Each structure stands twice: as C-alpha cells, then as structure tokens.
Amino acid sequence: MHKRGRPFSAATPPLEARHRASGLNSRFNADQLSFADYVSSSHDMIRKVRAAAVAGNSDQSNLARAVAGNAPFELKPSGTNAAGKEKTWRRGILLTHGLSDSPYFMRHLAACFQESGFRVMAVLLPGHGTQPGDLLDVTWQEWARTVAYGTDKLAAEVDEVYLGGYSAGGALSIYQSLQDRRVRGLFLFAPALEISRLATYARLHKLLSWLAPRQKWVDIKPDKDLYKYESFTKNSAAQMYALIRALKAKLQQQKLSIPIFAVASADDKTVNAAAIAEFMSHQTNPCNKLILYTTDTQKIAQHPSTGKVEWVNSLVLEQKILSSAHTAIVVSAEDEHYGVDGVYANCLHYYPHNMQKYDACIKHPKEVWQGEITEENLKAGTLRRLMYNPNFSALKTSLKQFIDRLS
Fold first, then answer.
1. Which of 117, 148, 202, 359 could form a disulfide with 234 if both were Cys (CB 3.0 to 4.6 A apart)?
2. Whole-number Å distance between alpha carbons of 41 and 31
C-alpha cells in the first residue's frame, strides 16, 4: 500500500494492457463454492489473465509460479491435539493479505499456524493476483465479502475461529471480528488503521480520469514482481480510506474483548504505527501482545519489554539493514523470492526519476543498504526497500507463546 505518488512527467512509463481491468477479478463470485472449489476456480482465473499477459514473451516460464503464489490456499493442521470436539478441527485461522499483495505473503505465517495445530485458509482479495488494472473498479465491500465468506467456510470446520491479517488484511480482519461473535482472537501484522489524508482526494479520480486515464494511477511501475503489484491505482487508496473510516465508526460503537496479537514497525511508511499502538492500548484482554520494531535504542532502554509490549531492535548492520519496513513484517529471511538470497529487489522508489540508482539497486542488491524508504535511510546511499524480516524466527517464537496462552 502506498501513501502518495509523484506527479506524472515525460519520464512516466506509458499505460499498457496490464493497466486495464481484465473483467474477471473485480467482484467476489464464489459465495456458493466450497473452499476447495474456490481455490481451484481462483487458480483458473489467475492463469487465464496471466497467460494472456505473458503470451509470446520470456515471462512464460514464471507463469506456474505466479499462479501458485497468487492463488488462495489451505493447509490442514499438523501435530497432536488438532482434532476438534464439535467440528473436524479444534482451531482454525483465516489469513488475509495486504493491498496490492497476494496470498504469497501469508505463506510463512500459514506454516507457523499449521505447526501450532491450526486449520489454515488464506483468501485472495478481489482485484489482486492478476494484473494491476483489476484494482481500478474494485470496492472494499467486495474485500469484506471475501473475508466473510472465508470466515463462514472456516467456521464450518473448526471449533475456534481466528482471523489473521497483514496491512489491509488486518483492517478487514478487525472489521469482520466486530460483526462476528464466532471470532475468538486476532493476529494483526502492520494492520492498516490509519493512512495518509491525501487518500481522501483519490476519491475524486473518477470525476477527472475519464479524460486522462493516467490520472487513475498513483504510480506506474514496471510490475516485474510475481507476487505484488508495483503499479498502484488511486481507487486502491480511496477504497482503503473508506474501509478505515467504516472500521473506525464500528470501533467507536463496539469494544473488542478477544485476545489480540499485533506487530508493527515504528519506521513504517505505509501505515501509522502510532495508530496501531493506540488501538492496542484500548483493548482489554489480558493476553494481548504488541511487538514493536524500532531503531530507537534509547526508547528500547526507556521502555523495557513487558508481557503486553515487546520492543525489538530492527537495526541489523551486519546485514546492511537500517530499519524494518512495512513490506518486511511477514516474510522470512529464508524466502526464496524476497529473502536474503531472494531473486527480487524492491528499488521502485528510484523509478523512473533516477534510473542510475534504480539499475544499481536491481543489479547489485547485496551491495546496497536495506530498510524502509525514509529520508534518513536514503541519506546512507543507494537503498532497497526491505522485503524480509530478519527477526522472523523470534516473531514465530512470540507467536507460538501467545498461542499457548489461549484458553
């Protein structure tokens, strides 16, 4: 999710086929399907759109990986004590990815929950997983319908329903929990509870962009990543702003007493970490846990970790990491695509206004700094946005300890 794009210029790349809606992925149409059939039909839809996009070019070899990574998925629990009393399984979790992302980002968390005895289901939000143009007309209500559907399917199989979400998926998980008493707890990873006020102006794009299609876009990028859009629509920002407004209205009327595990980064440039901390401060369950990543060692010293709040130093100089980043929270350092030895480097902040640094960042990713795209970090030299969490193993440990405390 982005806060703000730069004005378009002569250097801005042209709109291409991927910047149009496919016509197959703006609505949620799986209400009557089993979850297995929903997964299968999503595979078919993603393959159809992506196959047309890569027809006749070298990206054809990545088609199978793209389909598998962008599709919703499900896992059966491993280990003992996973059987339920009234349903097939004792516990289950529905995982929801972030804006412009895909279910791929939930894979490492899914494995962790599976190891802890959870039945896992992960949904694909409408507009995602195919091509950026599919976010031009989607509404947040369609995303909410998807989460409600996944919750229903999960509840049919498990005694205890939990929701887990990253960024926009976190906001959607909270929204669902406020209207669904079946939800027993929340796992929130950099949940989008506050974004830039500039998103309000994105709602005007439909009045202006019919004459200038480029005005529908905050950013037009190469879209080289297999599992995340790089180009970003104004409608996406507008829908996120509307979702957050609806969520805040509900939170003013209702309180959450269920246990909540949350993770945030003080350096996050996509969502407001202070809003996450404030949200958690108003929640009352004694099991609640907030993990905060920061480079402020003085703050860590002044606010030692307690049972409810755990501070983690996100500065890892031996790995050339200057801070955590919004894009890094839920991905393991071992990830083959985004991890330490991953094939993808996020250098989009240089494109297209500084192609020299963009090329250097892309071609020699291990020689540059990593972190959130802050003014301070950019002063260090060429910087790529961090895409993995160097503290993911510790996060898994904290997550499992929290799960063990659930009643």
1. 202
2. 12
Residue of 167, 116, 126, 128 whose CA lies nearest to 147: 126
For 229-240, how does the pLDDT look when each residue is reduced to its tens digit (9 = 90+)?
999 999 999 999
Q: What is the pLDDT of residues 305-327, one digit of tens each?
A: 667 899 999 999 999 999 999 99
Nearest residue to 3 (alpha-carbon basis) of 129, 124, 248, 167: 167
The reply to whether the predicted model has a pTM over 0.90 is yes
Tell me, what amino acid is at 305?
S
Residue 274 and residue 265: Cα distance in Å, rounded?
Answer: 9
- Any idea what DSSP says for residue 316? B
Q: Which helix (H) or strand (E) holds 41?
A: helix 35-54
Q: Which of 154-163, 193-202, 209-218, 326-335 shows the lowest mean pLDDT across its residues? A: 193-202
DSSP assignment string, 76-103: ---SSS-B-SSSSEEEEEEEE--TT--G
**Helices and strands: H and E segment counts in the chain:** 12, 12
Residue 80 has pLDDT above 90, yes or no: no
- Phi and psi angles of residue 405, each rounded to the nearest 5 degrees, phi first: -85, -10
156: Cβ–Cβ under 8 A, 6 or more apart, which residues? Answer: 87
Q: Which of 140, 150, 152 is nearest to 26 (CA)?
A: 140
